[in-house]
Specification:
Helix content: over 70%
Radius of gyration: 15 Å
Shape: elongated
Distance between the termini: 15 Å
Number of strands: 0
Number of domains: 1
Number of helices: 2
Length: 71
């Protein structure tokens, strides 16, 4: 598979997976991302999604780098 395509797909999967994880953690803690208005709870839920997405991308890059070193 083309190296750039593989890199893009793994980054996208890591971002979406991490953002979903952040979303569900926010829901478990009682923060609704889709609540009316922009209250503190909504902004905190949005921050959790963003942080989760960033962590997911970094995890995907780390795993890709580790796999490349082992090969």
């Amino acid at each position: 598979m083309n190296q750039l395509l593989l890199e893009g797909l793994t980054d996208a999967i890591g971002f979406v997976g991490g953002a979903l994880l952040g979303f569900w953690i926010g829901r478990l803690l009682g923060f609704d991302l889709f609540a009316d208005g922009y209250g503190n709870a909504t902004l905190f839920a949005l921050a959790l999604c963003g942080i989760g997405g960033g962590v997911g991308v970094q995890l995907a890059r780390h795993l890709r780098r580790k796999a490349r070193e082992e090969a």
